[in-house]
Specification:
This protein has 59 residues and is mainly α. The protein has two helices and no strands. It is flat, with a radius of gyration of 14 Å.
Amino acid sequence: MGSEDFSVLPDALGVRYCYWGLGGFPEGEPAPSNHSPFFAPDISSIHLGAEAIIAASAP
């Protein structure tokens, strides 16, 4: 599973799903997990990540 029980519901319904992992962190530093108190992606990367998801999901 990508994150907790993310895939349980779509699997139960027999539908496709996709888990996106986007975010920007300083180069050379490992990204902390999303439940870490140190998780704080670069806020400027949110806009670019949203654009990437929209472009990838367009027909």
